[in-house]
């Protein structure tokens, strides 16, 4: 470690707004002579975002993942420990932090600015991504975590503008400009291609959360090892918190899925009992190709991925939904060749 503080950027946003896509875009344009570190936090215990970023891991990029909900409330892997360890190992020129979609920024900012870390990291502007199509949607705007993600942001970015209408973008712009305190930057992007200079924007004040008690829940015990799957016998881990429930699976590398049948099953309207999926993300070996499957509500996309270790899936939905996870698992197993 040097005596210089490490520029650190917190990248927030609700489920499926494109945070990981934006980080991948930034990494693709990273100066070759710089070393970066990425700290990723996911709702469930099965890491998916880390696999999506893994294609650049090792190219002067170090990735560390904290699974299982809010990173500032993890009992077994305290965030300050994770940060000091990744900085010690990687000695990066820059640190990016991506919390889960329901992660409250206030707790993370408190940790970054406390006595243990304030002399190590230089916290820049908080960047928040928003899907402009859902501005005004009560299913999101009534969620207090989302409201604080927006409120605590210095930089607000409309994502997925290639999927938004002109009316969507005009509504987003009017809404964003009416926020108080005003944002330092209001902008938009498609495919996560944001200006890399945004990482050097400085916050002019420490904004206070609207809902300061949201991140003061009990510490969460995070399993250090979920085990190793066997062919046809996956590891299943369930999770719940902050009004959501989820289930993750890790399948053996030997399990080879039938591509079209599996994608049809996971796509909208969704498997039996999963019509109201909030988020679904997975990596699968399909007919000897490896594919990243990404679903946000009723929008499904898939693309090739370099990850090759195992197949894995995470599904998140409201805690009010009734779901039979063993039934979903048995259905998934039918798609293995």
In short:
The chain is of the alpha/beta class and 337 residues long. It contains 9 helices and 14 strands.
Describe the structure in your own words.
By secondary structure, this protein is an alpha/beta fold. The protein is built from nine helices and 14 strands. The strands form two sheets. Strands 1, 2, 3, 4, 5, 6, 7 and 8 form an eight-stranded parallel sheet that branches. Strands 9-10-14-11-12-13 form a six-stranded antiparallel sheet. Helix 7 (166-177) links the parallel strand 7 (155-158) and strand 8. The radius of gyration is 19 Å and the shape is globular. The N and C termini lie far apart (49 Å). Mean pLDDT is 84; it is low at 216-224.
What features would you highlight for this structure?
single chain, 337 residues, alpha/beta, Rossmann fold, Hypothetical Protein Yjia, Chain: A,domain 2, eight-stranded parallel β-sheet, six-stranded antiparallel β-sheet, 14 strands, 23% helix
């Amino acid at each position: 470690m040097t005596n210089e503080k490490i520029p650190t950027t917190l990248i927030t946003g609700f489920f499926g707004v494109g945070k990981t896509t934006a980080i991948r875009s930034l990494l693709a344009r990273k100066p070759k002579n710089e070393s970066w570190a990425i700290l990723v936090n996911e709702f469930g215990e099965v890491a998916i975002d880390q696999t999506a970023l893994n294609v650049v891991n090792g190219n002067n990029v170090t990735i560390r993942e904290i699974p299982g909900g809010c990173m500032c409330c993890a009992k077994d892997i305290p965030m300050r420990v994770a940060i000091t360890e990744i900085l010690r190992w990687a000695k990066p020129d820059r640190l990016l932090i991506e919390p889960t979609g329901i992660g409250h920024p206030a707790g993370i900012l408190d940790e970054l600015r406390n006595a243990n870390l304030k002399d190590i990291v230089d916290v820049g502007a908080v960047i928040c991504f928003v899907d402009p199509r859902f501005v005004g949607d009560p299913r999101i705007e009534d969620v207090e975590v989302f409201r604080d993600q927006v409120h605590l942001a210095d930089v607000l970015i409309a994502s997925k503008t290639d999927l938004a209408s002109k009316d969507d973008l005009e509504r987003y712009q009017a809404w964003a400009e009416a926020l108080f305190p005003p944002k330092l930057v209001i902008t938009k992007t498609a495919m996560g291609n944001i200006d890399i200079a945004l990482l050097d924007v400085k916050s002019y004040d420490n904004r206070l959360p609207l809902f300061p008690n949201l991140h003061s829940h009990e510490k969460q015990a995070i399993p250090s090892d979920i085990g190793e799957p066997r062919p046809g016998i996956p590891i299943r881990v369930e999770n719940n918190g902050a009004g959501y429930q989820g289930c993750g699976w890790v399948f053996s590398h030997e399990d080879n899925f039938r591509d079209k049948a599996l994608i049809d099953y996971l796509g909208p309207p969704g498997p039996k009992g999963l019509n109201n999926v909030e988020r679904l993300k997975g990596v699968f070996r399909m007919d000897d190709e490896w594919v990243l499957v990404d679903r946000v509500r009723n929008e499904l996309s898939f693309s090739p991925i370099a990850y090759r270790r195992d197949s894995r899936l995470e599904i998140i939905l409201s805690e009010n939904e009734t779901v039979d996870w063993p039934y979903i698992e048995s259905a998934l197993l039918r798609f293995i060749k």
